[in-house]
Amino acid sequence: MERFKETEPDQYYYPLSDLHVTIFDFISGCADYRRDPGTEKIFMELSRRALADFSPFEFDLEGVAFSSAAGLLRGFDGGQIVEMRRRIRNLLKEYGIPNTERYESESAHVTFCRFKSVLRNPVGLVDLIERNGDLEIGQATIRSFELVEHDWYNSASRKRIIDRIDLIPTTHTACIAG
Description:
The chain is α+β, with helices and mostly antiparallel strands and about 180 residues long. The protein has one domain (about 1-165): Cyclic Phosphodiesterase, Chain: A, CATH 3.90.1140. The protein is about 25% helix and about 25% strand. Strands 1-4-3-2-5 form a 5-stranded antiparallel sheet. The chain has a two-stranded antiparallel sheet with strand order 6-7. Strand 2 and strand 3 form a beta hairpin. Helix 2 (about 35-50) crosses helix 3.
């Protein structure tokens, strides 16, 4: 991130405490949002049902990519997050809840930068993206998820945790035939 900050210092770069992987946005950001404990309870139940069969899994961060609005760390997880989203979408239909996604996300990623002003050095930015397109960043084991209420940037100081869902490790038993 430091290299990107040096190249394009006028953009917004997430502090490390705010970096996150979004699984699903149940409610899109809107000015007239009001907290509703009943709706939160439904989203908690729905999330727990959607994630019930998942065990902890590895999440690899490798390379950067950019959209017209943001810089992303590319995530690879063997399709786990895409499957979680599919289950959530199906459960929304089952519960009769409208899906208000802005777009149907198919990627696993961590947003690290948002564009907020005109680029100072677009050629330098493109060069930096090309040089870091396949950069190995790291790996994490995903063991739990939070259902949160947050601002656009998922700022730690403004985030309210509604529920925490721990993924249950799969137990394997061995059968020995005699």
